[in-house]
C-alpha cells in the first residue's frame, strides 16, 4: 500500500507550498490566524453570556455544553484545515483550473483539498483545543472513556470530511451554489454546539440518520458524561461514531466520483 | 444621477448569480431554525432574559439572518473590489477620475444591499413568518423607522468595510484585517447573541460601538422597543457613527493618496 502514503506526501508538499505563499503577506497571515481564533473564541464567550442568564440549557450545565462545543469545534477545525479548500470547487470549474488539475499525475481530490491550504485555521484549532481541554477536567475518566473520547475526535473529523466533500460536489451540477454546503458543514457544527435536547425529536432523528452530525459529539459525549440519552435512544449509539464516520466518508467519496464523471468542462 | 446609475448596475451585477442566491437563502434559513430552537430553550429557562420574550427572541434571530448579507456582516461587498484594485495598483486610475472614490463605492454598495435585501433579506423573513410566526412591526411608524435604520446600518457597515479595504494601501492584502473586523462585527453587532443579554460594562461598551447599528438597533426598532424620543436617539446614534466613519474614510483616503503618488502607483 505505497499509494496512500505517496498521496499523503504529495498533499503535504502542495500544502507547504501554499503556506510559504501565504507567508509573503506576514501581517495578513498572523491576523488571519488570530482573527479565526477570535471568531470562535467570541463564539464561546457568547455561550458563556447565555449561561449568565441560565443555570442549565435544556438540562445541560456550562461544563457539559463546553464539552459538546469543544469536541465538535475541534473535529470541524481538523477537517476544515485539512480539506476546507474543497468548498471552492465551483470556482475551479468556472475558471477552468479543474481542467489543468486533471492533467496532472496526482489524484484530483488530493489536489483540490491541498489547493490554497491555509494555516489560518490554527487559531480555531487552538481555541477549540483549549475549551475541550478545560471541559475534560470535569469528566470522570475511565480507560474506556479515554478511548471513546479519542475515537470521537477522529470520527467527528471524518464526518465533517464527508460533509465537506459530499456537499461541495453539488457544485459539479451548479457552480455557484457554494453556500448550500455551508448549511450542512457549518450548520452541522453550530447544531453540535448545543445539547440536542433543545430540538424536537424529528430534528434529532434527522441529525442521527440523515446528516449524521449527532455522532460527531452528542452520542459519545453522553457516554463521557455518564448520561443516558434523553430521547431514549439505544446506548449502543454512543459507541457508533467510528461507523458513522466511515460511512459518511464512503458516501462522500461515491458522490465525488459521480460528480467527477458527470463533470464536463466549461471550455473556458 | 451618476451614483444612481452605479447603484443600479451593482444591483444587476449581483442578481446574475441566481443559484448562489437561492442556496444562500436556504443556508440562512437553516441557521435561523437552529438559532430559533437555541433561543427558545434559553427563553424557556428564563422567560424575561434581556427584556425580551420568546417571540421577540425568535423574531430577532430571523431579522439577524435577513440582515446578515444586506449589511455584509462578514465584510466583502463592493469594498472587496476596491481592495483588489489597491493590491494590483489599478486604484491609481480610479483616483484620476473626477468622481469621489467613497461616493462611488457607497453607491455601488447600496445597490448590492438593495439586491441582498430583496432576496436574502425577504427570503428568510418569509420562512420565519411561516414556520416560527415571528412578530411584525407594530405600527407604520416603526416600519418606516426600521427602513431608515436599515439604510443607516448599511452605510455604517460600508464605512467600516471601506476602512478595512483601505488598509491594503499599507498592507497590500486586506484579508487579515477583514477577518478581524468580521469577528468584531459578529460579536458586537448582536448577531451572535442580542446585545441586551450582554452583562454590565460589556453591554454598555457593546451598545456604544458602531457595530450596534448593524443588527441590534434596527431589530429593536422592528420589535417596537424604541418609542418617541428614544426612537430618535436610536436613529441619531446610527447617524453619528455614519458621519464620523465616512469622514474617517475621506481622511484615510487622503493619506493613502499621498502614498500612492510616492510609490508611483
Output the structural class of chain B: mainly alpha
Number of helices of chain B: 12
Main sheet: strands, sense, barrel of chain B: none
Q: What structural class do the secondary elements of chain A suggest?
A: mainly alpha
Whole-Å distance between the termini of chain B? 30 Å
Order of helices and strands of chain A: HHHHHHHHHHHHH
How would a textbook summarize the main sheet of chain A?
Answer: none
Span between N and C termini of chain A? 37 Å
Structural shape of chain B: globular
Number of helices of chain A: 13
- Overall number of structural domains of chain B: 1
Low-confidence stretches of chain A: none
Sequence of secondary-structure elements of chain B: HHHHHHHHHHHH
Strand percentage of chain B = under 5%
Beta-strand content bin of chain A: under 5%
Give the oligomer, counting copies of the same chain as homo and different chains as hetero. Answer: heterodimer
Count the beta strands of chain B: 0
Helix content of chain B: over 70%
What are the segments of chain B in which pLDDT stays under 50 over at least 5 consecutive residues?
Answer: none
The outline of chain A comes out as globular
Average residue pLDDT of chain A: 87
Amino acid at each position: 500500500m505505497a499509494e496512500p502514503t505517496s498521496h499523503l506526501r504529495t498533499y503535504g508538499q502542495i500544502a507547504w507550498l501554499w503556506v510559504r505563499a501565504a507567508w509573503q503577506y506576514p501581517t495578513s497571515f498572523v491576523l488571519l490566524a488570530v482573527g479565526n481564533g477570535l471568531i470562535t473564541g467570541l463564539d464561546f464567550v457568547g455561550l458563556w453570556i447565555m449561561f449568565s442568564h441560565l443555570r442549565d440549557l435544556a438540562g445541560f450545565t456550562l461544563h457539559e455544553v463546553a464539552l459538546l462545543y469543544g469536541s465538535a469545534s475541534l473535529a470541524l477545525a481538523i477537517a476544515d484545515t485539512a480539506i476546507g479548500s474543497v468548498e471552492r470547487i465551483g470556482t475551479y470549474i468556472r475558471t477552468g483550473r479543474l481542467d489543468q488539475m486533471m492533467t496532472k499525475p496526482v489524484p484530483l481530490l488530493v489536489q483540490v483539498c491541498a489547493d490554497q491550504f491555509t494555516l489560518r485555521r490554527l487559531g480555531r484549532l487552538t481555541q477549540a483545543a483549549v475549551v475541550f481541554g478545560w471541559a475534560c477536567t470535569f469528566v470522570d475518566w475511565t480507560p474506556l472513556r479515554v478511548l471513546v473520547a479519542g475515537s470521537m475526535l477522529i470520527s467527528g473529523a471524518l464526518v465533517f470530511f464527508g460533509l465537506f466533500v459530499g456537499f461541495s460536489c453539488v457544485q459539479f451540477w451548479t457552480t455557484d451554489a457554494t453556500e448550500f454546503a455551508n448549511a450542512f458543514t457549518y450548520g452541522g457544527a453550530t447544531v453540535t454546539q448545543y445539547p440536542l435536547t433543545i430540538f424536537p425529536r424529528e430534528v434529532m432523528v434527522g441529525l442521527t440518520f440523515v446528516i449524521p452530525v449527532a455522532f460527531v459529539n452528542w452520542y459519545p459525549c453522553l457516554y463521557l458524561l455518564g448520561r443516558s440519552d434523553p430521547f431514549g435512544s439505544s446506548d449502543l449509539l454512543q459507541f457508533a461514531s467510528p461507523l458513522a464516520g466511515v460511512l459518511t466518508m464512503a458516501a462522500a467519496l461515491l458522490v465525488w466520483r459521480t460528480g467527477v464523471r458527470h463533470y464536463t468542462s466549461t471550455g473556458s | 444621477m451618476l451614483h444612481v446609475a452605479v447603484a443600479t448596475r451593482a444591483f444587476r451585477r449581483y442578481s446574475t448569480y441566481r443559484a448562489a442566491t437561492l442556496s444562500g437563502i436556504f443556508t440562512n434559513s437553516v441557521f435561523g431554525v437552529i438559532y430559533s430552537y437555541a433561543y427558545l430553550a434559553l427563553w424557556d429557562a428564563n422567560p424575561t432574559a434581556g427584556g425580551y420574550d420568546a417571540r421577540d427572541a425568535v423574531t430577532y434571530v430571523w431579522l439577524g439572518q435577513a440582515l446578515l448579507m444586506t449589511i455584509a456582516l462578514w465584510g466583502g461587498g463592493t469594498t472587496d473590489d476596491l481592495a483588489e484594485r489597491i493590491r494590483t495598483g489599478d486604484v491609481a486610475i480610479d483616483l484620476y477620475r473626477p468622481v469621489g472614490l467613497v461616493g462611488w463605492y457607497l453607491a455601488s454598495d447600496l445597490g448590492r444591499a438593495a439586491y441582498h435585501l430583496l432576496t436574502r433579506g425577504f427570503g428568510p423573513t418569509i420562512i420565519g413568518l411561516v414556520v416560527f410566526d415571528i412578530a411584525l412591526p407594530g405600527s407604520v411608524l416603526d416600519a418606516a423607522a426600521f427602513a431608515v435604520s436599515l439604510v443607516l446600518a448599511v452605510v455604517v457597515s460600508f464605512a467600516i468595510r471601506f476602512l478595512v479595504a483601505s488598509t491594503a494601501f499599507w498592507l497590500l492584502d486586506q484579508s487579515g484585517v477583514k477577518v478581524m473586523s468580521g469577528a468584531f462585527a459578529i460579536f458586537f453587532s448582536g448577531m451572535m447573541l442580542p446585545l441586551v443579554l450582554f452583562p454590565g460594562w460589556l453591554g454598555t461598551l457593546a451598545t456604544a460601538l458602531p457595530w450596534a447599528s448593524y443588527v441590534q438597533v434596527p431589530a429593536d426598532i422592528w420589535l417596537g422597543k424604541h418609542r418617541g424620543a428614544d426612537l430618535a436617539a436610536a436613529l441619531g446614534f446610527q447617524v453619528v457613527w455614519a458621519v464620523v466613519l465616512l469622514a474617517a474614510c475621506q481622511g484615510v483616503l487622503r493619506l493613502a493618496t499621498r502614498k500612492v503618488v510616492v510609490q508611483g502607483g
